Amino acid sequence: MSAATETTVHLLRHGEVHNPGGVLYGRMSGFHLSDLGQRMARQVADVVGDRDIVHMVSSPLERACETGQPLADARGVEIATDERLIESENVFQGERFGAGARTLRHPKNWRHLWNPFRPSWGEPYADIVERMMGAVHDARDAARGHEAVLVSHQLPIWTTRLHVEGRSFLHDPRKRQCTLCSLTSLHFEDDRLVRVSYSEPAGDLIPTRDKQAPFSAGGATEEDRP
């Protein structure tokens, strides 16, 4: 009997975004990496650029493409874009969630908060999983026997992890283990997922205010609230 073919698909969250207004930018265009976010992206390339990465795909949003490009350059591979890796929809897109914002305290917004299981304020978790797992399986097939990197966003990555680990989608956003420029890695033997691992190649660059042991809130970007 031949040995199983081992393939790894890494889900890379983008780096810090320049967002001085504290806007929940969601799928809005025009939000780019901050100077620190660019450093994070370069450090990811420095740390994992010698891995056997042969396939890279990114969310089409600028912050994701900018995060993946240094690693693609280091590996000498083209980086494609895929709408399935995009940020989740959110009815609060464009609202301020920075310091002093009172968006969720306004009565007009309460009608969106009735069902955290779906969730009622955004794209259903089941829909996120369907599109993300489709992208994961395609990447696994494209990189079979090697490694692939998919650059996405915190909530889609975390929802995918909850799904593959058989956990409830209902969770505290402050306790997502998916900090800036982190790697959530799905390890396959042939087509079977056998293990999930997590690492933070740019963890030393994350501002102290954005860390929460043992999990990371990833609050710097404000992209995934509520």
UniProtKB/TrEMBL annotation:
InterPro entries given in the database record: His_Pase_superF_clade-1, His_PPase_superfam, PGM_Phosphatase
Group of enzyme by EC: hydrolase
CDD domains per record: HP_PGM_like
Keywords (A to Z) from UniProt: Hydrolase
Region (Disordered): 203-226
One GO molecular-function entry: hydrolase activity
Record flagged with keyword Hydrolase: yes
EC number: 3.1.3.-
Pfam families on file: His_Phos_1
UniProt cross-references to PANTHER family, sorted A to Z: BROAD-SPECIFICITY PHOSPHATASE YOR283W-RELATED (PTHR48100), PHOSPHOGLYCERATE MUTASE (PTHR48100:SF51)
Name of the protein in question: Histidine phosphatase family protein
Organism: Nocardioides aestuarii
